[in-house]
Each structure stands twice: as C-alpha cells, then as structure tokens.
C-alpha cells in the first residue's frame, strides 16, 4: 500500500512541478483555485498518514518496552 501512496505522491509532485507554467490559467477561475486547494490538502493528508503510521508504530513499541521494564522491575530483575 505504501507503494501506491508513494506513486500517488510522485504523481502529485509531478503535477505540481508543472504548476508554475499552468498557474496563470488555473488560478484565473474560482474552480481552478478550488482545485489547487484540494490538491494541496490531498498532499498534506497523504504525507500526514505516512508520518502518523510511523509515529503510531514507535509509540506502540515504546509502550511495550516500558511495560516489560515495569514488570521486570516489579520482580526485581531490572
């Protein structure tokens, strides 16, 4: 699934790399401005999902390690 997201992100970045050429035409209409805002929000959401997935895993691993350390310290093994 991360390959799909990476490909989607790459596609969005490719689209944005052509943005300076297209900006005058796209930003001239309210619908074009709405499209630019929606694409920006989509990029933030995709990047945020990736970052939060990594953060969630790190928090889970830390909680397990601290729990094990607590149990070991209760039995005097730590």
Radius of gyration: 22 Å
Taken in chain order, the helices and strands follow as HHH
Number of strands: 0
- Low-confidence runs: none
Q: Helical residue percent?
A: over 70%
Q: What portion of residues belong to β-strands?
A: under 5%
For the sheet with most strands, the description reads:
none
* First-residue to last-residue Cα separation: 40 Å
- For the residues shown, what is the average pLDDT? 83
Enumerate how many helices there are, as a single number: 3
| Backbone shape | rod-shaped
Category by helix and strand content: mainly alpha
Task: For the structure shown, list the relevant keywords.
78 residues, mainly alpha
Report on the structure:
With 78 residues, this protein is mainly α. The protein has a domain at 27-78. 88% of the residues lie in helices and 0% in strands. The protein has 3 helices and no strands. It has helices at residues 2-17, 19-26, 30-74. Helix 1 (2-17) runs antiparallel to helix 3. The longest helix is centred in the middle third of the chain and has 45 residues, at 30-74. The chain is rod-shaped and about 70 Å long. 0% of the residues are buried. The model has no long low-confidence stretch (mean pLDDT 83). It holds the Pfam family DUF8029. Keywords: Membrane, Transmembrane, Transmembrane helix. The chain crosses the membrane at residues 34-52, 59-77.
